[in-house]
Amino acid sequence: MKRNYRGLFFTPYVLWLAMFVIAPVALIIYYSFFNIHHHFTFANYQEFFSSGTYLTMTANSVLYAFLITLFAILISYPMALVISKLKHRDLWILLVILPTWINLLLKAYAFIGLLSHDGLVNDLFQFFGIPAQHMLFTDASFILVAAYIQIPFMILPIYNSLTDISDSYIRASRDLGATKWQTLTKVIIPMTMPGIKSGIQIVFIPSLSLFMLSRLIGGNKVITLGTAVEEHFLTTMNWGMGSTIGVVLIISMVIVMLLTNTKRKRRRTS
Amino acid sequence: MSKTIVELKNVYKKYDDGFTALKNISFKLQEGEFYTLLGPSGCGKTTILQSIAGFTEVTSGQVLFDGKKINDIPANKRQLNTVFQDYALFPNMNVFDNVAFGLVVHNAKKDEIKTRVHDALKMVQLEQYANREISELSGGQQQRIAIARAIVNRPKVLLLDEPLSALDAKLRKDMQYELRELQQNLGITFLFVTHDQEEALAMSDEIFVMNKGEILQNGSPVDIYDEPINHFVADFIGESNIIPGKMVADYQVAFLGHQFECADAGMRPNEPVEVVIRPEDLVITTPEQGKLQVKVDTQLFRGDYYEILAYDKAGNEWLIHSTNASTDDAIVGLTFGPNDMHIMRYNETEAKFNHRLESYED
């Protein structure tokens, strides 16, 4: 009896998984072996790995995603550290989460307003006598805005792992003679590594294929794999090539997952 | 010969919400001795430990280490180490790295780290465990590693915050011997915090009994057990029968309608007092031979003795430890000698108590 019920509860999830995860991935893999004339071919992969354009694009995507993740960590870790020490930390964490409730497109347009030639940032610059800068449609602005959007997703896992650390570890470290800096680098950061790793997983992988931001903020000067997928599906209608890039993205995601996987209970048996 | 290594002078600790955790604490710890802070939870014993270790600031008063005031010196600059109640072994490091931590942060040389970690692990008899992960160790082994990590810096004082409370009864007993032995081998001062009077009595050179932020009595385990200063100490240390009485004259005490010869003096005539008789000092005899007659209520077999609960006619409860069983509901007699009784005055300070004891004891 119980078994039947469990199966019943499981059904919606299995259906959802099959329709929206397994089927699309299978379709992407399937399409990636067809050319624009619906003939079976390996040419898409051949083209991807022999064409300089695609390989540069891949390298660019990885580089941008890497930079976005790096800046997100550099800003998030100290912030999570400070918040975890505050009195009303739940409130502060709420403030961190708040921007994620706002639509991505709205945030992108807000940044266009801020960074544009007549925007608020340039007004401020001119107030201090600095000439107006050309900020929109640059690599730097793209990375800045992308990092801004990803920061809440980086802070949360780090913050959670920080609050999990018992005070007595920090006391023990200080008691044994470690300075505050040594305590941070030798005890706190290594102990929050699982949080940092899940932050990387959440931020790095979506950053590989940000296409809307690269268009709106990067002004199409930043071409990532995401942009290429969009182009192939919507403009050139070369679904095969688009799918191939999709497969490459999926594989690189799996690689990142494997690299950042926390090895638990190592050397258990030795 | 012995030298004061840690001293607290009129230390107070008050929290923002008005709670006073420590009230005028003053004591001296000598080099190479085993001290215990003993008291119920919330009595302030851990607060004292933390103020010496540097984890909490005292509101007023002085904390001295080796004659120097250390109130404002951060924990990492104090030459003493702590064994934590939850051990606080770093889970991201193996046994070797945990023990080596105190040396690594002081930039010690690799060879020196190796030998000193090895020595520290040998001290706790776990030298073959250097490459284990912390999660692979049993509770008792983690306890020893925590001690090894704390002694690797060769502190002059080791602070131990209820380190045995997480261990099972058998292991706890074994560790009592080992801690005492370790303290004597190292020749350093141990300040041990516990709520377990058995641990305190077994290991310490000197015990500080605390309650509600105050030190009530300090002295050797035997002194404190045999001559508790007041009701709280008598009740907290060991089991006891405490009966209200009246001090008729020096060496004469009256309670339950009888007058007895006792070994205490120095009080006002007819002063109301409390009389303490330890359960193991009571001997069961026939009702005719007994100084008091009680009715046996219940008996519990404790392995090495019977714990007998009895009531006298006035309704006072009597706890008796006896190697032989008695009969339920039997009327039996109890005898005890003058030295088996200890008389306590109400509200006597420790200074006055010690002074009075000295006045008639040689």
Structural class of chain B: alpha+beta
Largest interface: A-B, 22 and 29 residues
Give the domain tally of chain A.
Answer: 1
The ordered H/E elements of chain A are HHHHHHHHHHHHH
CATH class of chain A: Mainly Alpha
Given this structure, which CATH class of the largest domain in chain B is correct? Alpha Beta
Kindly, what is the distance between the CA atoms of the first and last residues of chain B, rounded to a whole number of angstroms?
A: 24 Å
Alpha-carbon distance between the termini of chain A?
44 Å
A few lines on this structure:
The complex is a heterodimer of chains A (270) and B (362). Chain A has 270 residues and is mostly helical.
Structure description:
The complex is a heterodimer of chains A (270) and B (362). Chain A is mainly alpha-helical and 270 residues long. Chain A has 13 helices and no strands. Chain A has a single domain, classed as MetI-like fold. In chain A, 32% of the residues are buried. The C terminus of chain A is likely disordered. Chain B is α+β, with helices and mostly antiparallel strands and 362 residues long. Helices cover 26% and strands 34% of the residues of chain B. In chain B, strands 6-7-8-3-9-10 form a six-stranded mixed sheet, sandwiched between helices. The longest helix of chain B is centred in the middle third of the chain and has 18 residues. Chain B is globular, with a radius of gyration of 24 Å. Chain B contains nine helices and 20 strands. In chain B, helix 2 crosses helix 3. The two termini of chain B are 24 Å apart. Chain B folds into three domains: 223 residues, Rossmann fold (3-Layer(aba) Sandwich), CATH 3.40.50; 65 residues, no CATH class; 53 residues, OB fold (Dihydrolipoamide Acetyltransferase, E2P) (Beta Barrel). The interface between A and B is medium-sized, with 22 and 29 residues.
